[in-house]
Design a protein that fits this description.
The complex is a heterodimer. Chain A is an alpha/beta fold. Chain A has helices at 8-16, 71-79, 120-130, 135-149, 164-176, 194-211, 222-228, 265-283, and strands at residues 27-40, 43-56, 60-64, 86-91, 94-96, 105-108, 182-186, 214-219, 231-235, 242-247. In chain A, the strands form 2 sheets. In chain A, strands 6-7-8-3-9-10 form a 6-stranded mixed sheet, with helices on both faces. In chain A, strands 2-1-4-5 form a 4-stranded antiparallel sheet, with helices on one face. Chain A is globular and about 50 Å long. By secondary structure, chain B is mostly helical. Helix content of chain B is 84%, strand content 0%. Chain B has helices at 3-24, 31-34, 37-49, 53-84, 86-101, 104-115, 119-143, 147-155, 160-197, 203-212, 216-244, 250-257. The chains are: A alpha/beta, B mainly alpha. At the A-B interface, helix 3 of A face helix 8 and helix 9 of B.
Chain lengths: 284, 258
């Protein structure tokens, strides 16, 4: 496929120039005129859009917005779990309809969606088995992933035996197992305590640097969005539209534990906060 | 309560009931209507020692051990198909509920006419009684199953049999086991009904014959054997369940076992 992958040097360039927009290169995702309306008991509800957005390959972007603005819905539309009322989603320049069964998308849900009847390793192996990987390759890949996310010692445990942080690690490993182009994350760390959360941030950034994935990360937490992303999309309150797109003015690698002290954090925060604040106030 | 105390309480309860029975027999209630534990024990011993029990027991066991698993399989398969293909479920639902409402006793003569007196008709009756719980539990399990499991599995590349056997069946396996376990006693009921209506051998035949000549001790012997059969089936199915659902937290499994 045209521009399906980019070289390491191109990637480095993108990451080193987070402010350059409108460059000509393969887009990991393009969302065009997405809207969502649905019928509720009290009549028609306009939940989302219209939204246009695009994300270049190898980028880490976040979507922030007040609760109920439809940011998770947008992510679910990209994954294909939810059908948009209008508009199109393109993954690697190809139009997608419904659930992407071509294994180009990895998805880390807000809640725990690991299969409770499978042990840790089998959960990570599930997509590989479903996609018909030969056994030896599966084994090797699962071992790699267990090590990548640091859950090797829990390989034979059932999901209920894992802590919240461990479950997230396993979910990330499962989503990465088949090497998707795009990693969608829907408030993945919302349920974790703040220390575990920061550890997971650090892990996620390390994994992202190693795997060169495109990540779309949905959160309501501005600090989390700034700490992780190249760019932050700000959504308005419902019906959610894209209000602004802010480039994060921090270099990488970043120190998650001292993120507030890093050059560029404050300036980004000051740009972002008024935008989000307006929406929160309008909401209240 | 620790397991030892639970078992102790069960034994104590059994002894209390037997004691009361022995006390009442011939004193407060005429012995010919309720017999007595001592007489029943003697008869039970004779029944086993003389070997008279074996043809009856094996006839009943055969119809249960063939009919019950078949009923489970048919119930789960049909419940699955009707649960997954909504239209079928909507069309056939009322018929199945309607048939469930009819007592097995009313259907039993039909099966005997169709399949003759013997194993086949009894197997059919056992299948009929055990089918429904497995069917309804499987069906209900699919109804309230989290569809997110399925859509998520599809995103991970699962389709066809991986989706059915690797995702949907395990997801509803607790419901299926509820069906399997709650239909175990029904298999004994089904076999006994078949034997009451028409059969040459079986614990049900023995009970019917004893009751028809007001042989209460004989009747109780048959009933006790039926009770033991039910308990044995419950222990077996519960063991299988505990192994099959080993992925559930221990406490949740423990609740199911009680």
């Amino acid at each position: 496929m045209k521009g399906a992958s980019i070289t390491r040097s191109q990637l480095e360039e993108i990451r080193n120039h987070p402010n350059t927009e409108g460059r000509t290169q393969a887009l990991a995702v393009r969302v065009q005129g997405i809207t969502k309306r649905y019928q509720s008991d009290s009549g028609a509800v306009h939940a989302l859009g219209p939204i246009d957005m695009s994300v270049e390959q190898g980028r880490f972007v976040s979507i922030v917005g007040p609760s109920g603005c439809g940011k998770s819905t947008l992510l679910n539309i990209i994954a294909g779990f939810v059908f948009p009322t209008d508009g199109d989603v393109y993954v690697l320049d190809a139009l997608t309809r419904g659930i992407d069964t071509n294994c180009r998308i990895g998805y880390v849900p807000q809640d725990n969606r690991l299969f409770p009847w499978l042990r840790t390793a089998a959960n990570i192996e599930f997509p590989l088995k479903a996609q018909g990987w030969p056994k030896a390759r599966r084994r090797q890949r699962v071992d790699e992933l267990l090590a990548l996310v640091g859950v090797t010692q829990a390989a034979n445990q059932f999901i209920y035996q894992l802590s919240g942080g461990m479950r997230k690690r396993v979910a990330i490993a499962q989503a990465l197992s088949y090497d998707p182009v795009l990693l969608l994350m829907d408030e993945p760390f919302g349920s974790l305590d703040s220390q575990t959360r920061m550890l997971m941030h650090e892990e996620l950034l390390r994994i992202w640097q190693e795997t060169q994935k495109t990540v779309i990360f949905v959160t309501h937490d501005m600090v989390e969005a700034i700490a992780l992303s190249d760019r932050v999309f700000v959504m308005s309150r419902a019906p959610g539209t894209l209000k602004a797109e802010i480039a994060v003015e921090m270099t990488r690698p970043r120190d998650i534990f001292y993120i507030h002290g890093q050059t560029g954090f404050d300036s980004t925060y000051e740009k972002l906060w008024p935008l989000l604040h307006d929406e929160l106030v309008r909401n209240a | 309560m620790p397991m030892g105390m639970i078992i102790g309480s069960r034994i104590a309860l059994t002894i209390a009931v037997l004691g009361l029975w022995q006390l009442a027999s011939g004193r407060w209630i005429p012995e010919w209507t309720i017999s007595s534990p001592t007489e029943v024990s003697v008869r039970l011993y004779d029944f086993v020692a003389s070997g008279e029990i074996w043809p009856h027991l094996s006839a009943t066991l055969q119809s249960i051990l063939i009919g019950y698993p078949l009923g489970v399989v048919v119930g789960v398969v049909l419940g699955y198909v009707l649960g997954r293909y909504r239209v079928l479920g909507q069309v056939l639902g009322p018929f199945i509920i309607g048939i469930k409402g009819v007592p097995t006793l009313a259907f039993a003569p039909l099966f005997i006419v169709w399949f003759g007196i013997g194993l086949t008709s009894k197997v059919a009756i056992v299948m009929f009684t055990t089918f429904f719980f497995c069917f309804f539990n499987t069906y209900a399990g699919l109804r309230h199953m989290d569809e997110d499991f399925v859509s998520f599995a599809r995103l991970l590349g699962a389709k066809g049999s991986t989706l059915s056997f690797g995702v949907i069946l395990p997801a509803i396996s607790p419901d299926i086991f509820t069906g399997i376990r709650s239909s175990a006693p029904l298999s004994v009921i089904g076999a006994t009904i078949g034997e009451f209506v028409a059969a040459r051998a079986g614990i049900g035949v023995y009970v019917r014959q004893a009751a028809s000549v007001l042989d209460m001790a004989g009747t109780f012997v048959g009933v006790i054997i039926l009770v033991l059969l039910v308990l044995m089936l419950d222990i077996i199915t519960s063991r299988i369940e505990q192994v099959a659902l080993n992925w559930m937290p221990k406490r949740e499994r423990g609740r199911r076992a009680a």
